[in-house]
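BUG: 3D viewer hangs when loading the predicted structure for this chain

Environment: internal workstation, default settings.
Expected: structure renders.
Actual: progress bar stalls at 90%.

Input used:
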Amino acid sequence: MIFSIQRFILFFIFLLLAIFYVVFAYYFQKQEEQTSKVIYTTILNDIKEKAYSISKNIEKKEDILLFRAQIGNISANSPFVSNILVFDDNELLLTTDPKIKKLEKNSFIDNLETYNDKLTNLNYLSENINFYEQNKQKKLDLIYVIDKNYINSYFIKNRDEFFIYFGILPIIGFLILFFIFKKYITNPLEKLRQLAYYNTKIPKAFKIRELESIRHSMVDSFSRLENEKKELFLMARTDSLSGLANRNSLNEFLHRLIPTARRKKEEFAFLFMDLDHFKTINDSLGHNVGDELLQNISKILKKILRPNDFVARIGGDEFVLIIQDFKSNLELTNIIKRVQEQLAKPWIIQTHPVSTSCSIGISIFPKDAEDIISLMKNADIAMYEAKKHGRNRYHFFTAELNEAVLRIINLDKQMRQALKEKNYKLYYQPKVCIKTSKIIGAEALIRWIDPIKGFIPPNEFIPLAEENDFIIELGEWIIDDALNQYINWQKIGIDISISINISAKQFLQNNFEDILIKKIKDKSINPNKIILEITEYILIDQTDKVYLSLKKLHDFGINISLDDFGTGYSSLSYLKKYPINYLKIDKSFVDDMNSKNGKIFVETIVKMGQMLDLKIVAEGVETIEQLQYLKSISCDLYQGYHFCKPLSAKDFEEFYKAKN
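C-alpha cells produced before the viewer hung:
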C-alpha cells in the first residue's frame, strides 16, 4: 500500500496522538490514584490522631461532649469531611450536623484495593476512642463522614484541568503542527509532484531550504528539457546544413495543406528540384565546397519564393518547392524560370568559380495526384524527364510520362525475371580479316528472346540495366556463357577469339580483374583468345585503379579493345597511357565515309592506330564500297551486315564452317 505524503503525516500524527493518549491515560490514572491516596491517608491520619487525643483526655463517655467545639472546628476546616459523629455502639453521642441521626454502613470493604476505589465507595472512616471507666475499658466510635460530593467535584475539576492541559491543548498543538507541515512540507511536495507529472504551473519559492533546492533544480531541469525539446523539435523538422525544412516538416505541411486545398477546391504545385552535375562539383572541389553551395542556394530559394510558398531540402541536392496561389501555368512557369535563372548565375565558393543549374519536375494537386507519395513520385518522374531533355529545364508531369515510367518499371522486373528463366541468349557476329576474308573472331552480343513479346532489342533494356546496376549481374552471365561457348567451339575445331563487352560499372567492381582471371584459369582457356571491349567512359577518371586493372588483365594475356572510339571523350592520352590492343571505329563514322571529311577522319584513325601498333576494327560495315575503302587504307578487321548479321551459336558454327 502506498501513502501520499499528506496521509503519511496524518497517520504519523494520529499515531503520535494515540501513543500520547495511552501514556496520558496511564499517567492520569496514576496521578488520580496518587491524589486519592493523599486525601485518604490525610483523613485517616487525622481521625487516628484525633481519636488518640480524645482517648487521653476522657474518663467517661459523657466527657465526649467537651470536644464538641474542637470536633466541629475539624469538620468545618476539612473540605473532605462532611460530618463527624461519635457513637457508643448504636447510640449517637455527638454529631456536627444535627440533621444526621443515623449512618449508612460501608459495603464491599474487602474488595477495595485502590485508594480511588476507597474514596469512591466508602461512606466514612472510623476509629476507636479507647478509655477506662471504673477500671473497665470502654470504647467509642469516632466517625468521619466523607464528603463525596466535594471529592467528586474536586476530581472532576482536576480532570477538567488535566484534560484541558493534556488533552485539548496537545490536539490543538498537533493540529497546528499538521497545518504547519501541510503548508511548508505537504503542499510544497504536492506542488513538486504536480510539477514533475504535468510540468504546467511553476510553484513560487518555498520557505524550507531543502525543498526550495529541489524546486529550483526541477525548474532548472524542466527549463533545460523544454529548451532541448524545442531544439529537438526544430532539428527533427529542419535540415541541419541548409536551415530549410526537411522531409518530416514537408510531410507535416502537406498533411495540413492537402485537406485545406481539397476543401477549398484549390490547386497547388509540387516542384521536385535537383541540381545538375552536383556530384561532379563534390568530387572535384570537395564536399566542403558542395555544402557551401547548398547553403547559398537555400538562401536564394528563401528570397525568391513568396511568403506563402514552402521549400524543403529532402536529400543531398534535392529540394521540394510548394507553390500556392498561382492564377495560371504562366505565372507558375515564371516563378520556376526565376528560380532557374538565379541558380544558373556564376558562384564563387571558397575562391572556386562554380557553375550549376537545376532540373525541375512539376506535379499539380489535384490534377496529377491527391496524396503526398503520388505527388512526389510524379514530380520526380517529371524531373528526370527534364534531365533527359538537356538539364536546366522544367517538365510538367503527364499521363503519358507516367505510362512510360510504368513501362520502365515493368521492363526492369521482366528483364530480371528473364535471367532467372534463361530467356537471354548470346548471338555472335563474325570479325573478319580484311586481307584474307577469313573469320578470325566473334563479338558476343546479348539478345533477349521473350516467350510472349519475342525479340526485345538491346537498346531497349541495356541502358536501363546500366542505370539500375542490373548490368553487373547480367554482365557476369555474359562472361560465363561466352567462355563456355569458346570451350564448346574449341572442342569442334572452331579456334577463334571471342570479344566480350564489359560495362563501366561491371569493370569498376572490386576485384573484377581477379575474378575474370580465375574464371579463365579454371576453364583452361588461352587468355590471348579473349578480348574485352570497353568504352571510353571507363577511362575518363584516369585513376590508378583503372590502369592497374587493365595492366593486370593485359599482362595475363587478355586483349583490350577500345570500343566506339571517337563517340565519347576521346583523347590520345588514353591510347598512350593504357595497354590497348584493338581500336574499334564506330559505325557512325563508317556510315559517314561517303563524305570527304568522313573518309579523312576514318583514315586518320587507321593511320594513328597503325603508328601506335594497334589493330583497327571497323564495325557496322554494310556495303561493298565501305569494305573496299577500308581495304584501301589498310584497316585490319571489320564486322557488319555486309558479311554477316549476329547469329546464334548453332547458326554461327554452320556459317563458320561454310566460310572457312
